[in-house]
Automatic annotation (TrEMBL):
The keyword Membrane applies. Gene3D superfamilies: FAD/NAD(P)-binding domain. Residues 62-384 form the FAD-binding domain. It comes from Tetradesmus obliquus. Keywords: Membrane, Transmembrane, Transmembrane helix. The keyword NADP does not apply. GO terms for molecular function: FAD binding; oxidoreductase activity, acting on the CH-CH group of donors, NAD or NADP as acceptor. The chain crosses the membrane at residues 20-39. This is FAD-binding domain-containing protein. InterPro entries: FAD-bd, FAD/NAD-bd_sf, Geranylgeranyl_Rdtase_fam, Geranylgeranyl_reductase.
Length: 489
């Protein structure tokens, strides 16, 4: 029996038994639950009637014009087109194209890729490496590398080069029916309120019209900036360099390194299928304006290059013969930074353009895809109702908030905590050393968004961590535990 019907049955039975007070309380509870369900449904459902039913769309126009064919834009285009919407997917690049990234694709993204049929293509072409042996090194040099896949029942993430990932998602969107226009550099967009239509213009002078505009043009989003929705430059930054396979010493799939001098930022090494490594150094905004902890964007090249030879853990993993390509870098817009909203009349902003990167980890591929899917579902709802107003696009904002947006605030707080009290990371590493893969897999789940950050507050987890912190304080401050994380001369 369904839980609600079961409850009703129980309440009726209790009435029969003359337990009137209990029954009244039960009925009252059901009424409140029903009202809450009704409000929730209303919040996640666009208004029922609108000015622009499908038949009003001019023949040359699209239901949506999506600017940017990265993970957010292409996923949005795929799900919209698959369900019958007419979408244009515009990108200034021609695929396959590179994108500076750590290439760590977390579980929520893996699930979407599987659903799209992209995961199979990646695996069939040996383009994805599922991480098993993984771990981290704490600010005091307490390290753990374990095997979390068995405990989790699946890999927490896999490594896929963006040149392959983005090409396959964009092409999948095209196969689903999206009109992929490559080499289409968008320079502006104007909205005709009367017609309820956007006109999107390219550098070449070409134009595309659509009922809905979806900004998916990445962290520096020129479009969202031009339209006035994004008011700041991104504050985070990250480097990337590939390391040639067979030239390094890394015998793991993925490790994050947390040297204390760049907290809450960190460096990461991730392995690709051909033994190639991806080396990244993330600087995460924290503390004073313009700072990422005690460092700024200007320190990135020094930190990245010094670590290769002087960081005791990174240099050991790379070894003396590692062949690295030159460092490249790109911006990180974390936790919705610089945007007051991600929606308006006939407009949604998704992925990095909306700042949908976790402010603790710097990871945004999975949130880009989840947001892209949420935007597609909202577009499809609006196509049904004909209402593309702010009230309808608000549903997209509620959807991404419910899926991962609430985590952003906690992630920001955790990043600040780690910066101010690195001992928390040491305690975590010590605890993982004691408890092994069972605890490591919990950490992996939280860091890859398989679990929300509120997981830290579960009484059993919080108590375990609290105890670990007390023990670490004692070991460091009273017993004088050695600091093993010092730069080599
Ligand atoms: C160095 C680095 C390392 C990272 N590591 C990881 C990681 O390991 N794991 C993870 O999950 N996340 C990581 N991220 C974040 C991740 O790269 C992004 O969150 C993700 O790419 C967001 O996808 P998106 O589709 O929103 O934007 P993008 O991937 O940036 O795609 C935007 C697209 O818009 C196009 N575009 C831009 N301007 C225009 C225009 N004017 N006209 C037409 N098209 C345009 C671009 O060509 C591009 O194809 C990293 C980021 C950086 C910088």
């Amino acid at each position: 029996m369904a839980p609600v019907a079961e409850n009703v049955q129980k309440v009726l039975e209790s009435v029969k038994e003359n337990k009137t007070t209990v029954a009244a309380v039960g009925l009252g509870g059901l009424a409140v639950a029903g009202a809450a369900l009704y409000i929730r449904r209303r919040q996640l459902t666009p208004p029922a009637v609108g000015k622009y039913p499908v038949g009003t769309l001019p023949a040359d126009a699209y239901d949506a014009v999506i600017v940017g064919a990265g993970p957010s834009g292409s996923v949005c285009a795929f799900y919209s087109a698959k369900a019958g919407a007419k979408v244009a997917l515009l990108d200034k690049a021609t695929f396959p194209r590179d994108k500076y990234c750590g290439d760590a694709v977390c579980t929520p993204a893996i699930r979407i890729l599987e659903d799209m049929g992209v995961l199979k293509e990646l695996m069939d072409n040996n383009e994805a490496h599922f991480a098993d042996a993984g771990g981290f090194v704490s600010p005091m040099g307490i390290s753990y590398v374990g095997a979390s896949k068995e405990k989790l029942g699946e890999a927490a993430c896999c490594a896929v080069k963006r040149i392959n990932l983005d090409n396959r998602i964009a092409k999948k969107a095209k196969q689903a029916g999206a009109d992929l226009k490559e080499g289409f550099e968008v320079t502006g967009a104007t909205f005709d309120k009367e017609a309820g239509l956007w006109t999107v213009t390219a550098a070449s002078g070409a134009t595309v019209r659509g009922r809905m505009l979806v900004c998916a043009d990445g962290a520096t989003s020129q479009l969202a900036t031009k339209l006035g929705y994004c008011t700041e430059a991104p504050r985070g930054v990250c480097s990337r360099a590939f390391v040639e396979g067979g030239t390094h010493n890394a015998n793991f799939d993925g490790v994050c390194f947390y040297p204390k001098w760049s907290l809450p930022g960190y460096a990461a090494l991730f392995k690709h299928p051909n033994d190639e490594l991806n080396y990244c150094y993330y600087l995460i905004p924290c503390g004073k304006a313009g700072y990422c902890g005690d460092v700024t964007e200007a320190d990135l090249a020094r930190l990245h290059n010094d670590a290769i030879t002087k960081d005791p853990f990174i240099s050991a993993a790379l070894g003396p013969n590692a062949k690295l390509e030159r460092m490249r870098a790109a911006s990180l817009r974390l936790g919705g930074q610089g945007l007051a909203t991600t929606h308006d009349d006939h407009l949604m902003i998704i992925g990095d353009a909306a700042g949908h990167i976790d402010p603790l980890t710097g990871e945004g591929i999975h949130t880009a895809m989840m947001g892209g899917q949420a935007a597609a579902n909202t577009l499809l709802d609006m196509r049904t109702t004909g209402d593309f107003s702010k009230a309808s696009t608000a549903v997209y904002q509620r959807r991404w908030m419910a899926q991962y947006g609430h985590d952003f605030g906690l992630s920001t707080k955790f990043a600040e905590l780690i910066y101010r009290y690195p001992i928390i990371m040491d305690a975590m590493a010590s605890e993982v050393q004691r408890k092994g893969d069972a605890f490591m897999s919990k950490w992996a789940e939280i860091m890859t968004n398989m679990q929300p950050k509120t997981y830290f507050f579960r009484p059993d987890v919080a108590a375990q961590l609290g105890f670990a912190i007390v023990r670490e304080v004692f070991e460091q401050k009273v017993l004088g535990k050695a600091d093993k994380y010092q730069l080599k001369a």
